[in-house]
Amino acid sequence: MATTNFCRPKFIHQYQNAKIQQQQQNHRNCFHFDTNFYFSNHLKSKGSGGAQSVRRRQRQRQRQRCGSLRVHCQTAATDIEVTARAGKDRLLKVPISNIRNFCIIAHIDHGKSTLADKLLQMTGTVESRDMKEQFLDNMDLERERGITIKLQAARMRFIYENEPYCLNLIDTPGHVDFSYEVSRSLAACEGALLVVDASQGVEAQTLANVYLALENNLEIIPVLNKIDLPGAEPSRVCQEIEEIVGLDCSNAIYASAKEGIGITEILNAIVQRIPPPRDTAGRPLRALIFDSYYDPYRGVIVYFRVIDGTIKKGDRVLFMASGKDYYADELGVLSPNQLQVDQLYAGEVGFLSASIRSVADARVGDTITHFNRKAEQSLPGYKEATPMFEPETSSAMGFGFRCGFLGLLHMEIVQERLEREYSLSLITTAPSVVYRVNCIDGETVECSNPSLLPEPGKRRSIEEPFVKIELLTPKDYIGSLMELAQDRRGIFKEMKYITENRASIIYELPLAEMVGDFFDQLKSRSKGYASMEYSFIGYTESDLIKLDILINGDRVEPLATIVHKDKAYSVGRALTQKLKELIPRQMFKVPIQATIGSKVIASEAISAIRKDVLAKCYGGDISRKKKLLKKQAEGKKRMKAIGKVDVPQEAFMAVLKLEKEVL
């Protein structure tokens, strides 16, 4: 602990001193040149002879005082010119031994996109006048949220020891929802930059991405980013990486993508430490698809990495998983814009356009081969996409669709893109999971909608999906997060201290408890310092029941939910109270009930709108008043028997929002 506290201020102090010295050096450099320029112009108006002699003496004094500085400036200018020229020549071919394919993996918001921007700028791939923050993030949504949603690729050219190298960067998303996309990107690379925030340390998604990289046998280069922050602790973070991940951080690179520190060291490390692709250009073509998108004019555009063989423009290619064949109309590289080339060989990354009309014909993870010279075996790792999209009709909300998502972030992104790009007004219900119902007759039914749940007499048990969740948190918030997991029916498995101040807590948790506001509660209770990573482990039998809502004795199916028996009362009470506030009053009394089968567990009532029939009775016998009240009660009774309560759309929306909070 003492070492950590000592090293951090010392490192920051050295960094700040170096930065101040560099600024002073730049200032002196600018001062000398500005003075020369100003003084020469000033003397031009006075005679030529005196001016020339003064200029000669001035140059001699400057040569004596800062001759080495002038050489340094010329060298730097030369390096910039060489780099810019190399960036423009990035379409030129290089030997396979000079190709480096790498990606950047990191937890969300650890500076991955900023580092990619600096690499593009340093290699001259993007001109300074065209540069902007998050250059590879094309969507406005990515820039607003500061996250990477869609992976991008870029080809760079870098001169190392007077020899050109081709660097293919694949920028991957950092969120757990897009882990399959990350895995396909890693399969297209030989190395990875592991970017870790020097102030936050190892996070949950950092571990998940590192394990994916290790499964693909990638060379991992640790990069400690954001060392310019006051709270940066690079020594502590290096120790965390070594203890948690098991990577040797003796040669870790200290960098600040924002300030441009360590970028040259990163480029040198990519060339030195990441192995080149295997020279398999003579084998039958095998190319891995790691991304694709639909263009309304050109069809599906496929991003791929050539593993074996060579592909040329005009070749007839076959997609091995889908069995479809097309002619390669366009072939090119991503740098980062699309630049067409005539051929690509083993080790290179590029794009393909073949007038493909359906995205299903060119799926992520599929293998491209020649139609006439097929490869014997496709590349491993492909997973068939499971469609989670079906039409559904609701009596409350009308026609719609039931969609499956990879996670809550994926759901939010899809919803916002539909609203922005297609101007749709969407209504989303509370997220649910798929349950398995074991019936008495031995049949197993998958149920994603409470209305499809078999009757209690026909079902033997209900199983719900469980996930293994790992929470990484500072030690100050361990108790609060354990309380959160226990309240969500979590089963404690393990807790260990990964460092002196950080702990890893592992729970098994029902997926239904996590798809609500679990992540928001996690961040709120830990003040934003905790992170989580989860994986599906299977189905487990649970004591689940169907909670129905009755309004005026009529069951309202859109409001039915599947909840755990221990939470049924609290959920039922919350729903009935909310409906009482939202449903308008009728001419008769309206009961609102939450039931489990025929048993009422929570009830509220909306009082009737009552006309004052006694207003005209300013006096007289009491029997006259009773007669009028009795007549009114009989009318209310007949009205209730034939009356129907219309639940307004706003009430459904409010209840759906409430379900997201209480379920």
From TrEMBL:
<comment type="similarity">
    <text>Belongs to the GTP-binding elongation factor family. LepA subfamily.</text>
</comment>
<dbReference type="InterPro" id="IPR000795">
    <property type="entry name" value="T_Tr_GTP-bd_dom"/>
</dbReference>
<dbReference type="InterPro" id="IPR004161">
    <property type="entry name" value="EFTu-like_2"/>
</dbReference>
<feature type="binding site">
    <location>
        <begin position="225"/>
        <end position="228"/>
    </location>
    <ligand>
        <name>GTP</name>
    </ligand>
</feature>
<dbReference type="InterPro" id="IPR031157">
    <property type="entry name" value="G_TR_CS"/>
</dbReference>
<keyword id="KW-0648">Protein biosynthesis</keyword>
<keyword id="KW-0547">Nucleotide-binding</keyword>
<dbReference type="InterPro" id="IPR035654">
    <property type="entry name" value="LepA_IV"/>
</dbReference>
<dbReference type="InterPro" id="IPR035647">
    <property type="entry name" value="EFG_III/V"/>
</dbReference>
<keyword id="KW-0342">GTP-binding</keyword>
<dbReference type="Pfam" id="PF06421">
    <property type="entry name" value="LepA_C"/>
</dbReference>
<dbReference type="InterPro" id="IPR005225">
    <property type="entry name" value="Small_GTP-bd"/>
</dbReference>
<feature type="domain" description="Tr-type G">
    <location>
        <begin position="97"/>
        <end position="278"/>
    </location>
</feature>
<keyword id="KW-0999">Mitochondrion inner membrane</keyword>
<dbReference type="Pfam" id="PF03144">
    <property type="entry name" value="GTP_EFTU_D2"/>
</dbReference>
<dbReference type="InterPro" id="IPR038363">
    <property type="entry name" value="LepA_C_sf"/>
</dbReference>
<dbReference type="InterPro" id="IPR009000">
    <property type="entry name" value="Transl_B-barrel_sf"/>
</dbReference>
<protein>
    <recommendedName>
        <fullName>Translation factor GUF1 homolog, mitochondrial</fullName>
        <ecNumber>3.6.5.n1</ecNumber>
    </recommendedName>
</protein>
<dbReference type="Pfam" id="PF00009">
    <property type="entry name" value="GTP_EFTU"/>
</dbReference>
<feature type="binding site">
    <location>
        <begin position="171"/>
        <end position="175"/>
    </location>
    <ligand>
        <name>GTP</name>
    </ligand>
</feature>
<keyword id="KW-0378">Hydrolase</keyword>
<comment type="function">
    <text>Promotes mitochondrial protein synthesis. May act as a fidelity factor of the translation reaction, by catalyzing a one-codon backward translocation of tRNAs on improperly translocated ribosomes. Binds to mitochondrial ribosomes in a GTP-dependent manner.</text>
</comment>
<dbReference type="InterPro" id="IPR000640">
    <property type="entry name" value="EFG_V-like"/>
</dbReference>
<keyword id="KW-0472">Membrane</keyword>
<keyword id="KW-0496">Mitochondrion</keyword>
<feature type="binding site">
    <location>
        <begin position="106"/>
        <end position="113"/>
    </location>
    <ligand>
        <name>GTP</name>
    </ligand>
</feature>
<dbReference type="InterPro" id="IPR013842">
    <property type="entry name" value="LepA_CTD"/>
</dbReference>
<comment type="similarity">
    <text>Belongs to the TRAFAC class translation factor GTPase superfamily. Classic translation factor GTPase family. LepA subfamily.</text>
</comment>
<dbReference type="Pfam" id="PF00679">
    <property type="entry name" value="EFG_C"/>
</dbReference>
<dbReference type="InterPro" id="IPR006297">
    <property type="entry name" value="EF-4"/>
</dbReference>
<dbReference type="InterPro" id="IPR027417">
    <property type="entry name" value="P-loop_NTPase"/>
</dbReference>
